[in-house]
Structure to design on (161 residues):
């Protein structure tokens, strides 16, 4: 009984210590077919070394990780696709889930707004099918991400004109 209790406590503590890099390394290739597992590891190594984190992707183009923090990352997969990931702790667990990965793909088009698709996963990359009770700060962060995608698109268009 004591061993089970200790294992549960240690498991909960280690889950809270996860960083986005940990789950990114373990992400199934099928969720981001542009990149191989080695590409993902290279991104992290380049960012840790303060180098430009650019890799050749599976389509023959280049992808670049533009941001990496303990709880988020951003990748320009191509001129038309940006991926943002955030690791969020939940104030109110969903079943036994206390952390989720928010995976946002933004498809940039010739209009002013990109089209974003948001998916939620557990830290072991299982889809979350229930509503996730994000707190106000998390909702605000997701809203800012959407605005940032719009502003980034505008800046890129202006700089390339």
């Amino acid at each position: 009984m004591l061993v089970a209790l200790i294992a549960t406590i240690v498991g909960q503590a280690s889950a809270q210590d996860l960083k986005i890099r940990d789950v990114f390394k373990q992400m199934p290739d099928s969720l981001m077919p542009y990149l191989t597992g080695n590409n993902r590891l290279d991104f992290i190594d380049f960012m840790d070394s303060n180098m430009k984190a650019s890799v050749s992707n599976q389509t023959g183009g280049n992808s670049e990780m533009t941001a990496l923090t303990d709880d988020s990352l951003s990748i320009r997969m191509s001129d038309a696709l940006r991926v943002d990931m955030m690791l969020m702790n939940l104030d109110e667990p969903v079943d036994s889930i206390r952390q989720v990965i928010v995976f946002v793909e933004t498809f940039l088009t010739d209009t002013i707004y990109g089209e974003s698709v948001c998916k939620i996963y557990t830290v072991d990359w299982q889809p979350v099918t229930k509503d996730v009770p994000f707190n106000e700060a998390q909702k605000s962060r997701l809203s800012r991400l959407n605005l940032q995608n719009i502003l980034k698109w505008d800046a890129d268009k202006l700089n390339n004109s």
